[in-house]
Structure formats: structure tokens, C-alpha cells
Amino acid sequence: MKRLISQAVMAFAIMIVWTTGALADEAIGHVIKVTPGAFAVREGRSVPLALKDTILSGDVINTDASGRIQIIFTDDSTVAIGNASSFHMREYLEGEAGNSFNGHLSTGMIRVVTGFIVAQNPEAFRLSTPLGTAGIRGTIVSLRHLDQHSTLWVENTLQ
Fold it and tell me: Is the pLDDT of residue 21 over 70?
């Protein structure tokens, strides 16, 4: 019973955070799966990430050779970041302030399943690598950037 109440309180708290929109110092997402070796770079410091940790706009998520991480954002987008990767969440807004998902993959591989931001404003969702930028239109996308080569895989989920 205590566990059920605890889970309900946690779900309510997450719902409150998610429905208020995200400012630079507010949680824009949470870690839902992690293998040791995933870190967030904030204010010049590398912080190890664990299950349920918050992700902030501006975070650079790095993984080492064994690290992997999956993040769910407040718009229900999910980002899975593979090992030996670096992903910068350049800008994230969801709510009254507007909508924007702008992420940059410096190296490695990510898989993104888009959420409400794309449904509300497809032009507000961007992923980039050092070689290019992709706008997303309601789909699942995998992106890899290694050795100065970028590869994009798209799975269309529109009906």
C-alpha cells in the first residue's frame, strides 16, 4: 500500500512539472532507463545520471563505451542515446512559452520517437549533426554521426 501511494505521489508530481512547461532550470525530461556510464554536463561539470534523474534544457548528455540512456521528455518524446555518444539538448520548450525541440548529436547514435511538439508544430522539432539538420514530421528517427559521416534512418508512423 505504501508503495502504491508513493508511486501515485510521484506520478502526480511529474504531471505537475510536465504541465507547467519548461524553463531553463526546470525539468524537461526524466531518465527512464540507464546503463552506468551516462553523464549530463551542466555548468561545466559532468554529473553521472541515474534512473529518474531530471534532464534540463541545455544539458549535454554523454555516454562512455558502456553507457546508454533513455529519456522521456514532457511532450512524451523519447530519446535513446547509445554508447560512446554526445547529445546536446540545445533548446526545449513545451507549453505556453511555445514549442521547440532542438537537439544536436555531436557523435554516436540516438533514436527519437516524437511526441506532442511535433503534433502541435512539426517545424518546431529539429535534430542536427555537424554535417546537417533534419526537421521531423511525426515519426521515429535514428541518427548516427561517426567519423565525419552522418546517417539518418526514418520510420514513418503517420497513418
Answer: no
